[in-house]
Amino acid sequence: MVCYNQNELLRRKPAARQKKREIEVVVLDTKWVKIPAHNPDLQVLKTAGEIIQNGGLVAFPTETVYGLGGDALNPESAKKIYAAKGRPSDNPLIVHICKTEDMEKIVREVPAQAYVLAERFWPGPLTMIMKKADCVPAETTGGLDTVAVRLPDHPAALGFIREAGGFVAAPSANTSGRPSPTLGKYVYEDMNGRIEMILDSGEVGIGVESTIIDLTEDIPVILRPGHVTLEMLQEVLGEVCLDPTMLESDCQQAPKAPGMKYRHYAPRGELVIVSGDRAKVSEKIAELLEEKRGQGLKTGVIVSREEQQLYKADSIKVTGERTDMAAVARSLFRILREFDEEQIDCMYVQAFPQDGIGQAVMNRMLKAAGHKMIEV
Ligand code: TXA
Ligand code: MG
Fold this sequence. Notes:
- The protein is of the alpha/beta class.
- The chain has 2 domains: about 1-200, DHBP synthase; about 270-375, Threonylcarbamoyl-AMP synthase, C-terminal domain (Rossmann fold, 3-Layer(aba) Sandwich), CATH 3.40.50.
- About 35% of the residues lie in helices and about 15% in strands.
- The chain is built from 11 helices and 16 strands.
- It has helices at about 5-20, 40-55, 75-85, 105, 110-120, 155-165, 185-190, 230-235, 280-295, 325-340, 360-370, and strands spanning about 30-35, 60, 65-70, 95, 125-130, 145-150, 170, 195-200, 210-215, 220-225, 240, 270-275, 300-305, 315-320, 345-350, 375.
- The strands form 2 sheets. Strands 1-8-2-3-7-4-6-5-9-10-11 form an 11-stranded mixed sheet, with helices on both faces.
- A hairpin with a 6-residue loop joins strand 2 and strand 3 (about 65-70).
- Helix 2 (about 40-55) packs across helix 6.
- About 50% of the residues are buried.
- The structure holds threonylcarbamoyladenylate and magnesium ion.
- Magnesium ion (MG) binds near residues 171, 172 and 180.
């Protein structure tokens, strides 16, 4: 564990506040603290919680991706989160809680479905949209009268949320537009100097963000696919719809989750998905790699273990066994960042079947590719 001096942290705060009055941008001395996911040091969580209660920001691990936390009930904290991420302030934040009954404090009327879902999927990667209570500031919800609520399945996150007062607003801890961080070092890369502290418990388990379900409609609607799949939700709720904007590039409707309309997860080079018959896909990817290498461009490819011998590229990223979609989900954002580190110009990946977690993977890949998909 990295050691830090708590007194130093407390001494530093008034100075940082004073500076803010003089100039807009405050460069903070970000503390990067390694903690175990299970049984983390209570004192570290208390210090992190105190930062949140004093209006500061702390990045923390969850089972999906790292979050950038601030006090969900403090409008100033929401403003700081938007500034640190460079995120448009019409894009609402998810409020993270540490016990199910706390949703009653921030939701106007909890629908019966929410209790059923909480019983089945919480703690876990499911976010529910409900009507907000008055105590949740408009800054946290991007001006909407609804609030997104999630109870993460991560012991350190739950301890931190408890110490922070129970309501932590947190988007993914990346700079707006970049892949969500699945490792503490990527949080540091994006947030160093912008937030007070990073709690780092290593690589996350799932790797794609939580499923978002809107419970304010007559029929619940999935706004973002994730580890909790359509089939799992239908099993519990009966009828569930998918937001039509989720997977299509040419849909004229605005997505109901404002964040889903922004270009996301984008690597700096060009990512292209190739879809179709397996043998033809491999042939097409090999052909494209050769063509781009011939043009002097740096190439990358994302492959399963079985396929790694098939290609010649500057960077070959292996996700796991061919059928292991959980491995693809876990490694996708890390691979996109690694391609950036290696300054890859052109990247190729096969399309994956859109069932189970595959739907979340394809949703993120299509966004990262700016919907560039070749059918063969
Ligand atoms: O797994 C996750 O959900 C991660 C971890 C940190 O918990 N968080 C996360 O937050 O992915 P963020 O801000 O990157 O994505 C939240 C999405 C955005 O697309 C936002 O527009 C949508 O949730 N959202 C939040 N509140 C909403 C609301 N009241 N109505 C509709 N969409 C909402
Ligand atoms: Mg995000």
